[in-house]
Design brief:
The structure is a homotetramer of 216-residue chains. By secondary structure, the first copy, chain A, is mainly alpha-helical. Chain A has 10 helices and no strands. The N terminus of chain A is likely disordered. The structure holds a DNA duplex (21 and 21 nucleotides).
DNA sequence: CATGAATGAGTCTTCATTCAT
DNA sequence: AATGAATGAAGACTCATTCAT
C-alpha cells in the first residue's frame, strides 16, 4: 500500500529526514558529552544543542540510555568505516597498510577533541555497561587481528628477530590509546600531529627498515 | 595560589577518628565509582558502602564535588607517595630507577581494578573539571620530568643515538596509560603482570643493553 | 441548554465514513479502558487499537476528554436503545416488562467484561466529572421511573402489602448495580447467567406470585 | 547500643512519627482521589494535601503505585478491623450479628463520600491491577463466608424454606455494593441512613421474622 | 559526632495537541 | 482525511543538601 508506487518519494524522504534527525541528535550528544561530561549530559542539554524541543529526543530514542548506546555505536561504526576504507586504499604491502591504520587513528574525524572526550567517557563506564564494550569489541578484535598479522609479516620480512610480534602489536595498540589519552588531557602539548609522529616513531624503533625515522 | 601544593593535605584534624572516617568515605567512594560508575555514584551509594548514615557524608565533606576531589587527591597522593618511595629505594643507576617507576605503576595498590576504573572516570571528566587535571598534573609533571631525565641519561650511557629521549619518555608514559586502559577494558586478557612485562619489553626495544629481554 | 437531550447524537455528518471512523475509535477506547484502565488509556493506546495513526484521534474528537464523553454517551445510548426496544417488544403486563428490563441489563452487549470495566471506570469519576453523571442520569431517571411504576403496579396487583414499592424499585436497581460489580470483580464465580438468575430470584422473593421461583 | 537504654523514648518516637507521616500521606491520597479522581491524583496533589514537600511522598513510599496499594490496604484493613469489632461486640444470635455487619458497612468511617469514591476507583482498576483485588479478597472472602453462615443459620431457625441461603447471602452482598454505588452517584437522594434502611428492608423481605419491618 | 527526615531543584519520560505534508 | 513529526507541559522519581534531634 504505502510503498506500492515505487516512484513515490515521500516515504523515503520521511525516512531520510528521520535518519537526519537521529544523526543530528547524536552529534548533539557528542557535543554535550564533550562539553559537560557524561554525568552532566541531560536530554535537555542534548536537545538544546540539537536545537529541538525537549520531547523530541525521546521521540527518536526510546531512552537516554539508548541514545548513549547509539552514540557510541555511531563512533565505533565511523571508526570502522574509515578503517576499512583506509586499508582498502592502502598499497598492498604490510608497512603501508600499518601506516594507513595509524593515519586513520589520528584523523580529525576520529580524534577531534570532542570525540576523544566521548570515547573516554564511554570507556570509563565499560565496567558496568557491558553493552558499551560489546559495541566496541567486534571492531577492536578485527583491528587487533589485522595489526597483529601485519606486524608478523613485517617482522618476517625484516628478519627483526623479535620474539613476539603479537606483543608488539598489543603494545602498539596500547600506545595509540595512551596517545589518545595524552591528547585528551594535554591538548596543548600533545596534538594530533605530534601524537601521530609519536606513533610512527614507535614503529621506527621496532621496525627500523620498514619505517625509517623521518628527519624532522 | 589557593592550591599551590595541591597534593599536600590540609593540616591534621584534631580528632584522629575524623581522619579515619574521611578515609573510610573515600574508600567507599572508590568502591562506588568502580562498581556503579561516576554518574551513578551518589552520596547514598557512598554512605551505604561506608556503612554510615545518609547525612554523614556531608558532615565530612562539604559537598559531593569536594568528596570527588578529595578522592582523586587521595589516589594521586598515594601514587606520589609510592613513587617517591620507589625511586628512593632504588639503586642509583638510571635504569634501576626507571624500572622502579614501572614497578610502582603496576603495583596492585595503584592499578587494582577498582582504582583503574576510578582513574579513567576522572580523566573522562578532565576537560570540564580543570581541578581534576590540576590535582594530577603536579605529580604528572614531576614524574614526567624524572622519566625524561632518566631516559636521557640512559640514552647517553648507551649511545643509542636515538634523536629525542624526550619523545621516548613521552611515548613510554603514553604506553603505560594505554596499558592501564587495556587492563581496565580487558582484564581477562591484559593483567597486571602481562602489562608490566609489556612495559619492560618496550624498554628492551629502545634500550636493549640496559633492559635485556627477559627470557620467558 | 447545550445538552438538553444528552443522549441524542449530533446530526449526521456528511460523510458516512466519518461516522464509521468515530465508532471505530469509540470501540477502541472501550477496549483500551477495559484493558489498561482509564488512567493508562492514552490517545496512543486508542489509536493503536483502532489501527490508525496517532493524530487521527484528534481529527475526529477535539480532545481526549471529548472522546471519553462520547464513549460514555455511546454506552448510555446503547443501553437506552436496547431498553426501549426491550420494553416495546415485551407483553403489556407489568411483570413481563420488568422481566424484559432485567434481560436487557444482562445482555452481552451491555455487560460484556469490557463494557463493565468501562462503566465502573466512568462511575469512579462521576464525582468530579459532572458531565459523566449527566450523560447517564437522563436514562437512569427514566428507567428508574419505569421500574418504580412497574413495581407499584405489580404490588397492587398482587396485594403484597409491602409498604413502599419505590423502595423495592430502588433496591432492585441497586441490586443490579451490585451484581454488575460482582461480575466485574469475580468474573469466574459471578457470570452473566448467574447474576441474571440472582436478579430474578430477588423478584421472586418480593413478588412471589408474579415471579415464581424457577426450579433449577 | 541504640536501644540499650530501655527508657530512651527517642527511637520509638521516630518510628511513631514515621507511621504518623505515612498515615497522613494515605489520608491525603484518599482526599485527592476523592476530589480529583485517580487519574488526576499526582504525587503533587497528595503532597499538597498532606502539607509536605514534593519529595516527601517518595521518601515514605517507594513509588506512586505503592502509595496507592498501601492506601487500598489501609481501607481494607480499616473495614476488616471495624468488622471484627462489630461481630465481636454483637450478641451471639445470628440476626444480631448480621445486623452488626450491616451497621459497620454503613458507618461513616467506611462509607464517607471520600472513601466511597476511593473504593470505586480501585474497583475500576481491579482488572489490570490484580494486586488490588488480592488486597481486598481475603477480607471479602472471610466476610462472605460469615454472611453465608449467618444466613444459613437464620434460614434454618426461621424455617423460611428458601432454597439457597448462599444465594441470599451473595445477593445481600451485591445489594450492599449497589447501595454504595448509589450513595456515590446520588449522594443527595441516597444517604448513608437511607441506604442502611434499605439494606435492613431487604433482610425484612427475606427473613421477616428475624428482621421485622421497622415502622418509620 | 551521627542520624535520617525533609526539602526542592533537576531529570527522564509520557502524552495531548498542533501542524506541515 | 490521514499521517506522524514536533512540541512542551506535566508527572514520577532521584538526590545533594539542610537541620532538628
Amino acid at each position: 500500500m504505502k510503498n506500492s508506487n515505487i516512484l513515490v518519494e515521500k516515504p523515503k524522504r520521511r525516512t531520510e529526514s528521520k535518519e537526519v534527525r537521529r544523526r543530528q541528535l547524536i552529534d548533539a550528544t557528542i557535543a554535550s558529552i564533550a562539553e559537560l561530561g557524561m554525568s552532566n549530559t541531560t536530554l535537555g542539554s542534548v536537545a538544546k544543542r540539537a536545537g529541538v524541543a525537549h520531547g523530541t529526543v525521546n521521540l527518536h530514542f526510546p531512552s537516554k540510555e539508548n541514545l548513549l548506546e547509539e552514540t557510541l555505536r555511531f563512533l565505533a561504526e565511523q571508526h570502522y568505516r574509515l578503517w576499512l576504507e583506509g586499508i582498502k586504499n592502502a598499497p598492498n604491502d604490510a608497512n603501508a597498510r600499518l601506516a594507513a591504520i595509524v593515519e586513520v587513528d589520528f584523523k580529525l574525524e576520529i580524534v577531534s577533541p570532542q570525540k576523544l572526550a566521548v570515547w573516554f567517557s564511554f570507556w570509563a563506564h565499560a565496567n558496568y555497561r557491558p553493552l558499551y564494550l560489546e559495541i566496541c569489541s567486534q571492531f577492536d578484535g578485527e583491528r587487533g587481528g589485522e595489526i597483529e598479522r601485519l606486524c608478523s609479516q613485517i617482522n618476517e620480512e625484516g628478519g627483526y628477530l623479535l620474539a613476539k610480534p603479537s606483543a608488539i602489536a598489543q603494545r602498539f595498540e596500547a600506545l595509540i590509546d595512551g596517545l589518545w589519552l595524552s591528547m585528551l588531557l594535554y591538548p596543548e602539548t600533545v596534538t594530533r600531529q605530534s601524537a601521530r609522529v609519536d606513533a610512527f616513531e614507535y614503529l621506527s624503533e621496532v621496525f627500523p627498515q620498514h619505517f625509517p625515522l623521518q628527519p624532522l
